[in-house]
Amino acid sequence: MEETNLQSRIDLSQFSAQIQQLRDRIATVIVGQREAVDLILTAILADGHVLLEGVPGVAKTLLARMTARLVDARFSRIQFTPDLMPSDVLGTTVFNMKTSEFDFHQGPVFADVVLVDEINRAPAKTQAALFEVMEERQVSIDGTTHRMGELYTIIATQNPVEQEGTYKLPEAQLDRFLLKIDMGYPNEDEEVEILQRHQSNVRHAKLDGLEPIITRDQLLTLRRTMRQVLVDTSLLRYIAQIVQMTRSSRAVYLGASPRAAVAMMQCSKAYALLQGRDFVTPDDIKSVTPSVLRHRVMLTAEAEMQGYTVAKLVQQLIDKVEVPK
């Protein structure tokens, strides 16, 4: 890589301090999950949506709510259920007796950060309505178009083990999520800390009392700054080679699309920015690639029978590609 890439050209000291403040504030409530925090912030900076997957009790909802509160975003939450209708999500028009006209009443999807709990519990029709607004960033009802704000981000959660009463998300709709983040169990030390906090009856501040650390305007400015983050040509080829490997592997039924390659580049730029740099390194790409590809690659039946998982395969493919010097 060129030597100019090794020195920051943009002063990111204030932003780096704010990010560390945000991480520290989240850590006072949520034990561990540092990687998940960074990846959620990466998606918000890269102007994309997030799918959080994890078993119940690993603080998926709490993490989403805290992130929205600390970045000074308008927040709403939708609990998806099998009887949820598209109008419950998007909103509906209501006849106004005083004006003799129809008024549009916005649904909960109109916010800066929208938490969709258990997205796979709603029927296909409601899921389709949500995915349309995710892709188009607008809602068209009765011939009128209602646009979303610049910061618009969906954070959806789903339970990977409980399948009763759920509707599997089609691959084409999964592709609209920039990242799929796996929130796993805490390790032994983290679990001990959780128990100590509960035993000490530590009372955390309510989310409503949290003061924003990054304003909405600052976040939008950082999105524009992200465009100036440098990605060396050798790293663009590195990204392309990883994507190509997903298409040539015998264990893969459906490989990653060009959209996945663009997502890898955008996320690596945002991730570099979170680390206080205005240039991308191979480690940035390695950090975001599993979450970019996890929901975009399908294994063959034979590979699944042999015990392969997408996460394991993606890591093997990353290890096979030579890292640029």
Question: What this model shows, in words?
Answer:
With 325 residues, the protein is α/β, with parallel strands linked by helices. It has a domain at 30-213: 3-Layer(aba) Sandwich (Rossmann fold), CATH 3.40.50.300. Helices cover 44% and strands 15% of the residues. The chain contains 13 helices and 11 strands. It has helices at residues 13-27, 34-45, 60-70, 86-90, 124-136, 171-174, 188-199, 216-226, 233-248, 258-274, 282-293, 301-305, 310-320, and strands at residues 50-53, 75-79, 91-96, 101-106, 113-117, 138-141, 144-147, 153-158, 179-182, 252-254, 298-299. The strands form 4 sheets. It has a 5-stranded parallel sheet. A two-stranded antiparallel ribbon has the order 3-4. β3 and β4 (101-106) form a beta hairpin. α9 (233-248) packs across α10 (258-274). The protein is globular, with a radius of gyration of 21 Å. Mean pLDDT is 82; it is low at 1-6.
CATH topology (fold) name of the domain at 30-213:
Rossmann fold
Tally the helices: what do you get? 13
Bin the helical content: 40-55%
Instruction: Please tell me how large the radius of gyration is.
Output: 21 Å
CATH architecture designation of the domain at 30-213: 3-Layer(aba) Sandwich
Question: Structural class from helices and strands?
Answer: alpha/beta
Number of DSSP strand runs: 11
> Strand content of the residues, in percent?
15-25%
- Would you identify the regions where 5 or more consecutive residues have pLDDT less than 50? 1-6
SSE string, helices as H and strands as E: HHEHEHEEEHEEEHEHHHEHHEHH
